[in-house]
Request: fold
Amino acid sequence: MDEDNTWIEYLSVGANRHTAVADWSQDGLVAFGADSNIALWRPHDSQPRGVTSLLSGHKDTVKAIKFLSRSEGEGEGAQHRTYLLSGADDHCLKIWSLSRDGVTECIQTLQEHTASVNCIATVYERKGRRRSDSSTATIFATGAADASIKIWAFDGREARVVQTINPKPKFFPLAIALSRLDESGEALVLAAAGTRDIVQIFVVESIANPEFQLQATLTGHEGWIRSLDFTWEKDNEGDGMGSDLLLASASQDKYIRLWRLHQGKELPAAVANGADPSLGAYLPGKSPSNKAHRLNTGGKDYTVTFEALLLGHDDWIYSAKWYTSTETGRLQLLSASADNTLAIWEADPSSGIWVTNVRLGEISREKGATTATGSTGGFWTGLWSPDGMSVTCLGRTGCWRVWNYNKDEDQWTPQIGISGHTRAVTGIAWAKNGDYLLSTGADQTTRLHASWKRDNNSTWHEMARPQIHGYDLNCIDSLGSSQFVSGADEKLMRVFDEPKAVAKLLGRLCGINDSSTAVDAMPDAANMPVLGLSNKAIEAIDDDAEISTSANPETDREALDPGTTVRKSALEIDHPPFEDSLSRHTLWPETEKLYGHGYEISCLAVSHAGDLIASACKASSVNHAVIRIFETRRWTEIKPPLTAHSLTATRLRFSPDDRYILSVGRDRQWAVFEREEQGVPKNGDEGDNTAPEDAAPSYKILQANPKGHTRMILDAAWAPSQPQVSFATAGRDKSVKLWRRGEGETEFACAATIAETHSVTAVDFHPRPDKDGRFVLAVGTEIGKISIHILDPRSLTAVSSFTLRAELCLAKPVLQLSWRPQTDSSELAVAGDDSSLRIYRISDDEK
Reply:
């Protein structure tokens, strides 16, 4: 094993829910903010790999992403370079250089703003247009929560602020758009809006000396404005003269307004002729104003007039993006709304009325819930592909949905998108046979990840979402090939069984066949009742069953609710599930609840035999810091609980042979409990004449070390079975300690220490020694560094060590590490506080 032979097998991460959080470049690369990282994804790759890499550098949530293109040099030697601009809650603006070979580096970090950077705008350039200015600088703008807009000049090496605009009346910019004012001159126009119901228009005469002046304030919206976008109305093949500039503004008032910027003092023909500017589409009693706003710069006159009001969404509109076909000049507008729909608008050729000709989305499970009433659902942003043949949108779960346009069938078809946790990944667990990986997180979801195998290719995807909870989830472990248990910020644990739909899906796509349980005996699927936390088993319905379409369910009691039913055809798919199927069709039914703890569950572990569950909860006293053991045949607790700690236990681990239980905690101590040879009756009643073979095993304290580390212990792991028993503990004192009990010895003693530069937050031993019998230990720290140590099995000292490359490490603490069991390859799963789930393959040709 070495650093150079480590690569990414799988990256799963959800996007931050902000309108300006993503952009789609001309060469097909999508970049989006994921916690404090920037994720890179190519939706049109021949193999749907999902996120290919994560760029770390920001210290807080990334909110704004924008690609910037520059032509550097003149004549035939000119080079076209692509840069990426990113803004975040850390007040920083970063500029990244993207090379053709996929290498990305941050070339500049700027902190001119004093609050979160919310939006970024670059100059809209028509494809193929030759710039007539002699300036070598590229202009872009940023808007931030310090109520300012900054104008930047970028020369390809560094950017500098050339102007700061403080909007009056004061508002926080949520959306800005920048464009050339006409096709022949150097004048620029900047539109800005945000936490008011107005759009401000600024103009500047020349790029060489940018000094924007406010010249118009557009009114009409009745809520905050979330998105602005410019486009040219026509795409003339000639000099481009005569083309008007159109501005789309999307608002929380549920409407989109279109504005026309026309060169000359004369009004556009439709307005001059007295036609209703909304062309018949306006609210009753609220006829839109057709007041003409005058602009003047560089000796040229322009008018800004209201063009149209677009009605059709039922909730806040977060995003509106233009696309103009370079072949036909066809103009389309893509809007994303909190009403769970993505709409494509076009002007009717005969009447000119803007209508929705495509509507994509999903059935809302929360009837009557809107953003105004506290729902955080819907789509947060929508993007066009460079060729206009695909669209993608960001959903409330941090996922990306993708649709491709099929010319032959004239319809938009869904494609495989990507998904991931949107908050810290707090727990991971492989199936006992290593077939799939379970993850759970602070975003209150449990996800199942597996490898999709087809045509000699395999790629990892989220295959099921077994649990969608109402509490933050803290820990998880597998009970076998078709069952798991999870713990959350509640006082109980929940056990889930695999449904038939997921079992068949995993068998069909991943080659995972469950031999331990009869698939036909499983329930078809599960759903979660309204206001409930427990998934209930349900049977799939036939495709011809009647579905309720009534707005009032009381009048149609016999019909089925489309939001809580599953059709059999929806489960027979030949690809990884799309997001709407993941959240509705792949839930696992809950079969048991395990009670006993007094506070939130902090950690749990399942024995390798699957017959016992050990658990602990948050605690500040000895009475609550106990470890409770549950047996899985009758789901009862084995009493009395195990006592050792005085504060919260942070990790529990069963030894490979289940003979020992290791616990570590915030009280700086570790404890080892040994299995007693003689079991006790499972119901805990000493007078019960239960047969000995039906008795549950019990554990007793073997050794406790109250000074195991000088600060709290955060993780622990057992070494593979050897003649001597060994384990590792990881502490906030920046060390990993290796403990050993040799043959004939009664206690564990510290045999070696691995020093780290930061607090050690996660450790795990490879389940098998290497070919020389040496142990392989993975170590993760609070700064996201991951290192691999090869240990001598007798002395437990490190024979060799290496640290994963910087681009493979995390931006935030490593919360858990887990080697994949029962496979020939070495695959390491990593759970991060930066909301990322990773699987690294570490090549070892000699193993």
